[in-house]
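User: Hey, my collaborator sent me this sequence without any context and asked if I could get a structure. I don't really work with proteins. Can you help?
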Amino acid sequence: MRIHTIIAAIVMSLISFNAFGGEKIHRIAFHVDQNDPKVMNMTLNNVQNVRKYYDAKGEKVVIEVVAYGPGLMMYSEAKSPVKDRIAAMSLEISDLKFSACGNTHRKMSKKMGKNMELIGEAEMVPSGVVQLVTLQEDGYSYVRP
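Assistant: No problem. I've predicted the 3D structure and written it out in structure-token form, which is a compact way to encode the shape of the chain:
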């Protein structure tokens, strides 16, 4: 086995376990690319279910929901069918992040002829796809509801 493979395995182990208490930290990236309220709600249901599961086990979970393409409507201030749920979940779940694709936002804003306003909980990232790749490279599990 090459040394860089061994080092990578050690680093991933350290990322997954808290060095002080041995607590496993689960990292999950959810992907939304459809402007479909059923998909958006299913994603949020999955987020809640995953959090409840790991909370019951006494384990930590860090979750990021990445939206791009038509799925960016999930974060639209004017049209999101789930913005109230997102607001409530953001208050309830401390390790939950909502990422919005900057590429999609720019294109949608241009098409609308004005800046597309996003909900306050959404954090802009340069690219939704790149964000998903980066999260997976950082040890996140990938889920597409």
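In plain terms: Helices lie at 3-16, 37-56, 83-92, 102-112, 128-137. You can pass these tokens on to your collaborator as they are.
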